[in-house]
């Protein structure tokens, strides 16, 4: 009689007539893992076992579209895959069930997610030199990652002052519904300016699945940005400088730019020197005037002008002589004034 009941149970399960399973807290079965996160191509093994002894005929089995397991009248049963590669597993129910003849039908679900980290994450820029004032593109190319629907692409900008996230992109899709992994490209537009020269950009592929305690991150190497731009003068500031004849006059012109700037100092229509340093050791009145530093490269030029006023040192000599003469006259006057008094006060 027990054999007949067992046969009826098996036939019923095969025909699908015993599919009214209930998700009951008191279902007397347990799983070795309630939730699993499996990396693409890895093995997976989950044991389902009874938590109590049953006197009635029963069947213990796994309901799984991927790698199904035949029901058994044993105290445990194992669902296993040697190399899990079917992305369909992420959207299908997997559960261990218990059917007792004429009694309980219950199940315990297994939450399973298949994922694959990216084979590579690389930043590619568009062709040609990047010059100031252009809208250019960086592409983050992510190879063979999944599930794509759980992917976030994060762009980060790194300079000498700070590191900051500038954008996160989500909601990626691929053409095949049955294949959750694939290649993803995300494009970032960059406005080229002198401030972007020397900056680094980095992109990261982040997989966010509920079983992860933290997001799985695959990052690109930092990508260095080079921007060509015309010179920007950083010194000296435009000013008026007063000098006395005989003094030394020194100006140093500095500028940043790419390519590296070349310098020329001019006054009037004449070039004085093709150097950032202007030095006149002995300034004279003919050196008075405007001096212009021109910094130039293949992208343009910039300039700054300083005005030099020169006062003649002979005026100082005249002033000193006048002061000395006045002092001598005062001394002579005092001598003449006090001389008669000295004579009157002498012996009679």
From TrEMBL:
GO process annotations (BP): cell adhesion
Keywords carried by this UniProt record: Disulfide bond, Immunoglobulin domain, Membrane, Signal, Transmembrane, Transmembrane helix
InterPro entries referenced in this protein's UniProt entry, alphabetically: ICAM_VCAM (IPR047012), Ig-like_dom (IPR007110), Ig-like_dom_sf (IPR036179), Ig-like_fold (IPR013783), Ig_sub (IPR003599), Ig_sub2 (IPR003598)
Matches recorded under Gene3D superfamilies: Immunoglobulins
Signal peptide: 1-20
Segments passing through the bilayer: 315-338
Residue ranges of every copy of the Ig-like domain listed in the record: 119-205, 236-311
Protein name (database record): Matrix-remodeling-associated protein 5-like isoform X4
């Amino acid at each position: 009689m027990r054999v007949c009941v067992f046969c009826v149970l098996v036939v019923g399960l095969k025909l699908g007539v015993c599919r009214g399973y209930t998700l009951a807290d008191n279902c007397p079965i347990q799983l070795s893992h309630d939730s699993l996160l499996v990396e693409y191509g890895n093995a997976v093994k989950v044991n389902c076992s009874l938590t109590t002894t049953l006197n009635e005929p029963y069947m213990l089995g796994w309901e799984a579209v991927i790698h199904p397991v035949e029901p058994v009248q044993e105290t445990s049963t194992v669902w296993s895959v040697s190399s899990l590669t079917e992305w369909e597993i992420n959207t299908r129910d997997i559960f261990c069930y218990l059917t007792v003849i004429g009694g309980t039908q219950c199940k315990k679900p297994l939450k399973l997610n298949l994922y694959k980290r990216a084979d590579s994450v690389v930043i590619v820029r568009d062709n040609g030199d990047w010059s100031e004032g252009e809208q250019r593109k960086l592409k983050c190319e992510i190879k063979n990652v999944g599930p794509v629907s759980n992917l976030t692409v994060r762009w980060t900008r790194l300079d000498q002052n700070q590191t900051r996230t500038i954008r996160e992109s989500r909601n990626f899709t691929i053409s095949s519904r049955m294949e959750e992994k694939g290649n993803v490209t995300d494009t970032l537009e960059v406005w080229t300016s002198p401030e972007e020269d020397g900056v680094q950009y980095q992109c990261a592929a982040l997989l966010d699945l509920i079983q992860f305690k933290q997001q799985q991150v695959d990052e690109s190497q930092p990508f260095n940005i080079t921007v060509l731009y015309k010179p920007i003068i950083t010194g000296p500031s435009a000013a008026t400088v007063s000098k006395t004849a005989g003094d030394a006059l020194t100006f140093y012109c500095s500028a940043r730019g790419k390519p590296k700037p070349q310098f020329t100092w001019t006054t009037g229509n004449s070039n004085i020197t093709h150097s950032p340093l202007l030095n006149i050791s002995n300034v004279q009145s003919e050196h008075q005037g405007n001096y212009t530093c021109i910094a130039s490269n293949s992208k343009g030029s910039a300039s700054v002008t300083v005005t030099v006023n020169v006062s003649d040192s002979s005026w100082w000599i005249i002033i000193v002589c006048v002061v000395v003469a006045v002092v001598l006259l005062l001394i002579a006057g005092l001598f003449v004034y006090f001389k008669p008094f000295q004579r009157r006060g002498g012996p009679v």
